[in-house]
Write a structure and sequence with these properties.
Blueprint: E1 6-12, E2 32-33, E3 36-37, H1 38-48, E4 53-58, H2 63-68, H3 73-82, H4 85-96, E5 99-104, H5 111-116, H6 119-122, E6 126-130, E7 134-136, H7 143-153, E8 156-162, E9 172-178, E10 184-192, E11 203-211, H8 214-220, H9 232-241, E12 248-252, E13 257-259, H10 263-276, H11 281-293
Parallel strand pairs: 1-4, 1-6, 4-5, 8-12
Antiparallel strand pairs: 2-3, 6-11, 7-13, 8-11, 9-10, 10-12
Length: 295
């Protein structure tokens, strides 16, 4: 069933400086994770949750993203003529996932600014914000739970994950209180990259949000913060602090998440996903064991 009232917004205008020189001419979202670009996993996740209207926020030199989700008749014809139906299906799949739109961010002024660029397209709809650095395993449920919770409460919903205290300083961390629903917490505030001793919990914000369009009004008057960027976190803080609003709730995710925003974690993501695949795993797993034994 399609969530016709819910749209998805995928910010993809970042410079990808951690992956230079690979990202000098290629968007970081197009870096392959096994045999698909990272952003395709995110689009597939949205489609599997019933979302058929997706807006990708792109920057300059990001045309490769729109090209990837477009049809390529000459390639399709060639594969058809060769009888390579499996590869043809995989090429067509990326073009048929959803109705995908693109808008430029212009200057990359932070996540809040990127989300604000979606205002005209989103209109009066609720929408999911999905960051391409966080890949959620298709076997684990997250986005559908977040959408259901948003529809039930009208609140802003964020995804949270338990993180080892020694790594908590790398994340935004939520101050929470429990609710009657298992795996759902009320968010009272957010702290950006706290020291372990100052962290209000071990629940870190990961890159999935389900928001109402009223967030645009807040973002429009949010002053730029650190680095001259407009932060989505500041808008969420305001929503959490509003005593008359529906507030902010967190869905605690305990499934498999792959972080592709860091070089080491990107390599780990490829290894984990490849090892789990039926077509690659049987050949790779014994090799991994031999390789690890000889380190």
């Amino acid at each position: 069933m399609a969530h016709t009232s819910i749209k998805a917004v995928i910010p993809a205008a970042g410079l990808g400086t951690r992956f230079l020189p690979a990202t000098k001419a290629m968007p970081k979202e197009m870096l392959p994770v096994v045999d698909k670009p990272a952003i395709q996993y995110v689009v597939e996740e949205a489609a599997q949750a019933g979302i058929d209207d997706i807006l990708v926020i792109i920057g300059r030199n990001k045309n490769a993203i729109s090209n990837h989700f477009d049809s390529v008749p000459e390639l399709e014809e060639k594969l058809k003529d060769k009888g390579d139906i499996d590869r043809l299906h995989r090429v067509l799949e990326s073009s048929d996932l959803a109705d995908i739109h693109f808008v430029r961010q212009g200057e990359p002024k932070g996540l809040g600014h990127a989300v604000l660029r979606a205002k005209a397209h989103v209109g009066d709809s609720s929408f999911a914000v999905m960051l391409g650095d966080d890949l959620i395993d298709e076997r684990d449920e997250l986005l559908t739970t977040m959408i259901a919770e948003h529809e039930r409460t009208g609140a802003a919903i964020i995804a949270l994950m338990e993180v080892d205290p020694e790594h908590i300083n790398l994340y935004g961390v939520a101050s929470v209180e429990s609710t009657d629903s298992n795996g759902i917490v009320k968010v009272n505030g957010l702290v950006e990259k706290p020291k372990a001793e100052d962290a209000p919990s071990n629940l870190a914000v990961i890159g999935r949000y389900v928001l109402s369009p009223n967030v645009f009004e807040i973002l429009e008057r949010t002053e730029p913060g650190k680095g001259g960027e407009i932060q989505l976190t500041d808008a969420l803080q305001e929503l959490a602090a509003d005593p008359d609003g529906p507030g902010v709730y967190g869905v605690v995710f305990r499934g498999r998440r792959y972080d592709t925003g860091d070089r080491v974690d990107y390599i780990k993501a490829i290894v984990q996903l490849a090892a789990d695949r039926e077509d690659l795993g049987p050949a790779l797993r014994p090799w991994f064991k031999d390789f690890a034994a000889n380190l």
